[in-house]
Amino acid sequence: MNRITVIPGDGIGKEVINAAMLVLEELSLPFEYVWMEAGDEAYEKYGKALPDETLEECKKSKAVLFGAVGETAADVIVRLRFELETFANIRPAKSYRGVKCLYDNVDIVIVRENTECLYKGLEFEVAEGIAEGIRVITRKGCERIARFAFELAKREGRKRVTALHKANVMKKTCGLFREVCREVAKEYDVEFNDYYIDAACMYLVMDPWRFDVIVTTNMFGDIVSDLAAGLVGGLGLAPSANIGEKYAIFEPVHGSAPDIAGKGIANPSAMILTTAMMLRHFGYLEEAAKVEKALEEVLAEGKTTPDLGGNLKTMEMAQEVVNKLKSY
Ligand code: NAI
Ligand code: MG
Q1: Which residue among 175, 203, 231 closes a domain?
Q2: Which of 30, 71, 281, 305 is the most buried (most CB within 10 A)?
């Protein structure tokens, strides 16, 4: 049995996690699910957004399946990524048939470093009206994320890895990142190039097809992955995986979406695609491909939630995916 900690969290996190469970139940794989609390509601109840028992349970599991939390995101998901040392955040951005979006045929995977950079939380108010933040970039961190990106490219038959940075201004931190990426690139038979992050944002919007695998530092990766999600139909379709040596966390890119929470209309696609990433992680390649195929077909038939122009509820759309699975 693979033990999995399930953290629904807040808002639509709780709604989309039920969609994921519906799909998982249909597959009946040897997973044992342990449900735990974290997020804004946990904070209200226990005074801690990430209760100790939840963190301990995560450390006993092989993976965490995470919905979304609200204002406590920094204390929950960002902390979990650090605690479990899931150093690589994989965020695919792919256009789907039948989904109205800016571009077709986009298929990019963003590999975001997850444990360093400005998100380490080293922020200080050094004097009245002066706040400072420390950006930490290490050779070890750069090396393992660069290697991860190239290994992913190799495994998935992808042609190019592009590193994004701002080494002309942040000469030490981004300079180190660029240098290490260039070194690691020499070990692989995969094309490599690098861009400044600002120019890359323009290229992404105007010519997304020039990207295949993107590797970048923590904060740039956070921003650029939402941008990429926006190119291909929005956050309702954006899955992610956080992978480390020992642990893994699977979560949609989106947050608790208070503007639509409680209405039962959150798009379950991001969470279902996230679940497929978890299946692949555990070696269930066939099942993962089936779930993706089922979702692709449902999207192509326009059986969607309102954010994509349809009129289905979250669980109705998830049920459509399950119906496809039953038919294979
Ligand atoms: P958000 O991702 O919650 O929502 C942004 C926009 O996208 C909203 O208009 C929302 O309705 C829409 N959206 C997101 N997911 C959707 C889905 N599955 N279906 C349909 N529409 C969807 O980001 P926002 O509004 O910046 O933050 C809301 C809360 O979520 C904040 O408290 C924030 O701290 C938290 N947050 C948590 C994250 C996490 O738990 N990993 C990640 C990002 C934000
Ligand atoms: Mg984000």
Answers
A1: 231
A2: 305
